[in-house]
Design goal:
By secondary structure, this protein is mostly helical. It folds into 2 domains: 9-143, Alpha Horseshoe (Serine Threonine Protein Phosphatase 5, Tetratricopeptide repeat), CATH 1.25.40; 187-307, Tetratricopeptide repeat domain (Serine Threonine Protein Phosphatase 5, Tetratricopeptide repeat, Alpha Horseshoe), CATH 1.25.40.10. Helices cover 72% and strands 0% of the residues. The chain has 17 helices and no strands. It has helices spanning 9-21, 25-41, 47-63, 67-80, 85-97, 101-114, 119-136, 163-167, 169-175, 178-181, 187-205, 209-222, 227-239, 243-256, 261-273, 277-290, 295-308. Residues 157-182 have low confidence and may be disordered.
């Protein structure tokens, strides 16, 4: 007696899973396809179930070396349920197999934003970093597409934080210090921080200082260990005449790197605008001890000297 064919979406999915475990990837893909058609014909509005079926079929394509269809199915899965780990990882693997390394890197790093303990993503991002550096040199990050910012609700790290942090993520990020100081940034955090900093740099070049401040603040939430991010944000505050914020950011930058010339210069400018000429002169003096021939600093010292006298 012939076996009764699966009669529901769930039965088709379960049977497909069994075929996949048995190494029958083409058969599993066919079963997932039937389940998808049935789900869509029923007019069901169950994006999670549909996303899983696309992701499962993508796994079959990946096993069979069909990377193009794997990417298509993963993209469909992510359109239904953004920031799902499995389709992101499968798409990253497919991109890597197709030597689309910048796209693979973006997906691996996105996974690390969600869960920084995923070993395959850690290894993948490190592997892509080495490959991209070999291909493009020190400026390899400029070749990357934009890395999406994963919302707080999708980040595993937030599961253990107090409820108030769920309510006010933007407040924590804008300070760029409180949350980050309480933990050591992971490899994924550091990568994300660097990417956000570079997005901020691009916005500065376009004169979008307010948006750049947001990017630098997000970067500092992921990792607050880079002096340049603070001094870059200080530049934006300076352009917006937010002089007290300039002083705060430059002070933090100098705490991390006592020879950050830009931080000394920007804090000196802020002190001058605040009419704290002695503090301004002290910062210029410290800067010129590091770079005696710094022309802008020499000019600023003359201006501050005139105000002191």
């Amino acid at each position: 007696m012939a076996p009764i064919p699966p009669a529901s979406v769930e039965e088709l999915r379960t049977t497909g899973n069994q075929s996949f475990r048995n190494g029958q990837f083409a058969e599993a893909a066919t079963l997932y396809s039937r389940a998808l058609r049935m789900l869509q014909e029923q007019g069901s509005s169950d994006p999670e179930k549909e996303s899983v079926l696309y992701s499962n079929r993508a796994a079959c394509h990946l096993k069979d070396g069909n990377c193009i269809d794997c990417i298509k199915d993963c993209t469909s899965a992510l359109a239904l349920v953004p920031f799902s780990l499995k389709p992101l990882l499968r798409r990253a693997s497919a991109y890597e197999a197709l030597e689309k390394y910048p796209l693979a890197y973006v997906d691996y790093v996105t996974v690390l934003q969600i869960d920084d303990s995923v070993m395959s993503a850690l290894e993948g991002s490190s592997r892509m970093t080495r490959t991209l550096m070999d291909s493009f040199g020190p400026e390899w990050r400029l070749k990357l597409p934009s890395i999406p910012l994963v919302p707080v609700s999708s980040q595993k790290r937030w599961e253990c934080l107090p409820l108030e942090n769920h309510k006010e993520p933007s407040k924590s990020k804008s300070k760029g210090t409180t949350s980050a100081k309480s933990r050591v940034p992971s490899a994924g955090d550091v990568e994300r921080a660097r990417a956000l900093k570079e997005e901020g740099n691009e916005l500065v070049k376009k004169g979008n200082h307010k948006q750049a401040i947001e990017k630098y603040s997000e970067s500092l939430w992921f990792s607050n260990l880079e002096s340049a991010t603070y001094s870059n944000r200080a530049l934006c505050h300076l352009e917006l005449k937010q002089y007290q914020e300039v002083v705060k950011d430059c002070t933090e930058a100098l705490r991390l790197d006592g020879k950050n010339v830009k931080a000394f210069y920007r804090r000196a400018q802020a002190y001058k605008a605040l009419k704290d000429f002695r503090s301004s002169f002290a910062d210029i003096d410290s800067l010129l001890q590091i770079e005696p021939r710094n022309g802008p600093a020499q000019k600023l010292r003359q201006e501050v000297n005139r105000s002191l006298n």
